[in-house]
């Protein structure tokens, strides 16, 4: 019998852990552990100022934080290298002594990529790959010291997966990755044929929507299976309490949740609020989420439209706090859009959470959202970048309590049937188990097969 202490492990490579906005990753890690999978976590960054979700405390996997490399921007590369190379030199020295041929081969590939994927013929090499090679070496040396680690898995298929690919080449361990949103669609994050190379090198790839799966299948150029596995939600955790019937003089609340970034479309929600106010509709709107660079645009728009008394931006909250906030809302609206550079959401987790709480939801018909919401069946869909259509949909729900009730109940049924994390995580664990045991992978796993 295998010693439990030597049970085969998967090493998760993450840009940062724990990140407030990435509850789907912390929940996934926790559920994989409850299913018996042993994990180790490597975090490229140490995050500060993050809200702490309770599930993080339940995770048993050890977390290794890499030496903190400074930002490449604003420095000459030579100055950056002088400052940061000492942080990684010992690991790379030991790696070279252990595996000189594979180490030098990976280093040469890194240098080749930095030249091949530069923006133009006259531009400097793309030095971010050298930074990622240094970080990969630190991880590779660590996993070689722990023979229980037999597989590497990265979340988001740009930086973290580049590091996983380098670490895989040096260590000889297979790797896989989960692709999400901008990491798939923004060419500058995977320039040239880099995404195809990652897919050729990876043992398997996972993505969280059917739309993403079709996109990756179309561009992969290899025999790799792309597995669609929805993030899923703990439907025992997100359970709605009975709602009291609102009095006629009670002002309803429009709720939205998400980081204040352009692809969430919050500016169109704010404009829709202005339309509703001008129609004489009484309501409050709360947009709950952490501030980002785009936050100032939203704040300025609220001021320009004189909506300060109607629209509030309370900031980021924990999952535990968010459950209570969902309970206080009457309508959930998230007008997601495709940004000019191609960035977009897959299936926003907050939509799944709101639907699990039996909230009537409104969103847009882009990306993977129609895989979750069927218009007039379990929610409402409107065209992207259309404040008028968003305002009309919100008003239709505010004016019709029976419709809100019907859509909310159907929404929870959808989540319990197709997005229950106990099913989706089983699908992911089966992939990891197959890799750890050297078995063939089951093609195109998705949550529906486990419903």
TrEMBL record:
SUPFAM superfamilies: UDP-Glycosyltransferase/glycogen phosphorylase
Entries under Gene3D superfamilies matching the protein: Glycogen Phosphorylase B (3.40.50.2000)
GO molecular function (one): glycosyltransferase activity
InterPro entries associated with the record: Glyco_trans_1, Glycosyltransferase_grp1
Domain of life: Bacteria
Residue span(s) of domain Glycosyl transferase family: 246-413
Name under which the protein is recorded: Glycosyl transferase family 1 domain-containing protein
Species lineage: Bacteria, Pseudomonadati, Pseudomonadota, Gammaproteobacteria, Methylococcales
